[in-house]
Amino acid sequence: MDRFYISPDCWSPDDLRLTGEEGHHAVRVMRKKPGDRIEVFDGKGRWARGVVSACERSELSLTCEEEGSSAAVSPQVNLAVAIPKGKTMDLIVQKAVELGVNGIQPLATRNTVVKISPKEGAEKSQKWQRVALEACKQCGQNDLPSVAPVASLETFLQNSGDGARVIASLAPGAVPVREHLESLPVTCSQVSFLVGPEGDFTSDEIAAAIDRGFHPVTLGDIVLRVETACMFLVSAARYRFS
After folding, report:
1. Is the pTM of this model over 0.90?
2. What are the tens digits of pLDDT across the range 214-229?
3. Can you list the residues of the chain whose pLDDT is less than 50?
4. How far lies 178's CA from each of 37, 53, 133, 161, 174, in Å?
């Protein structure tokens, strides 16, 4: 069953309506017509299934037959990652959403190859948010993760919040990620992962992250690409707390 998104502020079980880009996609691209069954979700856990009752240009109305809400997954998993080259960030966002990440923070660090202006950063964040939405629609995820605007590592560390904090590290003395995750209590409500760029964080950046409570962990003897490290960490957390 095809799935579409209705923003929380427009959600009303008595008047479920697709407009804007989602309405255009449903009517013009997916060719939905009265009588078709579809599913909609609001990105906050709510979902509804029903029958298309009316279509008009780029707007679609749905008669709700069934509705519900998805239970929140615990702990919340947040991923902060230095922006890699090319379209790799698209892949990171897509796969992180499929693995149930709750928030994604793209970072600009000293060794980040990609240099992004504030305007470009805003545009890219909007693009990555759309990638996250498409991933939710495809995989059945009813909670839409937020993709934050691109931030410097310094800004992120100043506002990194509470909960368990982990930084992927190549430095000697970093503990295995399995060992660290198993040391966390099952009641842990939030885990934040920090992954560096292709050239890794500088020693000063690593020290700053540790000062802010991030624990350095190793992902093994093999040096992983940025996207692989992200998937490794999120998967390990979901396995640990499943």
Report:
1. yes
2. 999 999 999 999 999 9
3. none
4. 44, 51, 30, 23, 12
Enumerate the β-bridge partners of residue 60.
18, 55
User: How far is residue 241's CA from residue 75's CA, in Å, rounded to a whole number?
Assistant: 7
**How many Å separate Cα 201 from the centre of its chain?**
22
The CA-based dihedral angle spanning residues 119, 6, 159, 110, taken in that order and rounded to the nearest 10 degrees = -40
- Which candidate, 125, 122, 123, 144, places its Cα nearest to that of 133? 144
Q: CA-CA distance, 85 to 91, in Å (whole number)? A: 11
**pLDDT one-digit tens code per residue, 166-221:** 999 988 889 999 999 999 999 999 999 999 998 899 999 999 999 999 999 999 99
Strands 37-41 and 3-5 come out as: parallel
CA separation, residue 210 to residues 20, 98, 179, 188, 201 (Å): 44, 29, 18, 19, 12
Paired sense of beta strands 16-18 and 59-69, if any: antiparallel
Cα–Cα distance measured from residue 79 to residue 193, given in angstroms and rounded to the nearest whole number: 5
First to last CA, the chain: 27
